[in-house]
Amino acid sequence: MGDRAIDVYEAYQGQVNWPQVVASGVRRVFVKLTNGGGQARVRGDRYVAGARAAGARVGGYHYALGGDPVAQANVFADELIRLNALDLAPALDYEDHSLPKGPAAQTWIRRFLTQLNVRLPQLGKNLLYGSGSDLQAMRAWEITVPGADVLEWAAEYGVNNGTKNPIRHYKGGQAAVHQYTSAGRVPGIAGHVDLDDVLANIDEGTVFVGDRPPPTPGTAATIRAALIQMMEDCMVTFPPAPTTRTKVLALPPDYDVTLVFAAESTIFGGHIYNWTPTEGKGTGGDPVQWRVEVKEGEPIRIPSGTSKAHVEYSCGTEVSCFIQVKPRG
User: Fold this and answer.
1) Structure confidence by residue, pLDDT tens digits, 228-251
2) Distance, CA of 157 to CA of 155 (rounded, Å)
3) Distance of alpha carbon 242 from its chain centroid, rounded?
4) The domain defined by 230-327 carries CATH number 2.60.120
5) Any stretches that span the bilayer, and where are they (predicted)?
6) CA–CA separation, 189 and 17 (whole Å)
7) Which superfamily is assigned to 3-198 in CATH?
8) Which of 81, 184, 232, 274 is most buried, judging by how many CB atoms fall within 10 Å of its CB?
């Protein structure tokens, strides 16, 4: 493909003129969303909104730290969903010195990406970022997870002067993205910025329908079809929650959707709230404020036009959510 992307963090790049960035040829933007077990110190809201409004495809990345990979994956998934930063494959930035290295890294990465794909089953790709030498040492091309491809994002600069140099250290696999400098310059950004050469398809084909318009004209039918195919006879697993927790489901607003919940123990305090593609319509904006109690084994018909459902629950064991989608009428 050879398209240019950038990866940014507001704490470093500061104020950005996004129309200038996109006009310069940048079409894909990765925003730092989370760091270890929490949100990034400077949250990604403004960057995600600004890049998207200027016409870029937007994704997020997580800066991993030593610790529980499952917990970190959940934090990352929460931010990806909250900001709908799902135009690009979500990226795991695996470079910190506190993380396992070499072959031991594979186990940590698999646990992180497996949990991320449990939370975001509609996505089909993950990106694994690291230096070329680190990716080689961990044999990154061997890492696989259920339900999604793992694509490598290799950072290799050569002479770090803003120009492209070939990948020299990562020999075992084929990088999907090459970060070739951290000293790049892009109109609309005052200081240095990481520049990335996109060498394979890293775009995701589905978005949370109804949250915003399709990224390009004429793709609504494609997005809808992909989302329907993904959700038909689909089961999503929610983790145990000793206290009340919220999960988000993306739903196609022009199809009939039914949810059925099951668990090995009682589901307490379960409710579903709905949002529609029309701004202000849905719980929190609609005077009707539709909500329904989650009852195990009982089919729950979601109101027509719902694009997003917030499932609020607490349960001592995992909760399985079965999703059935049918053409309306």
Assistant:
1) 444 444 677 788 888 878 777 777
2) 7
3) 25
4) yes
5) none
6) 7
7) Glycosidases (3.20.20.80)
8) 274
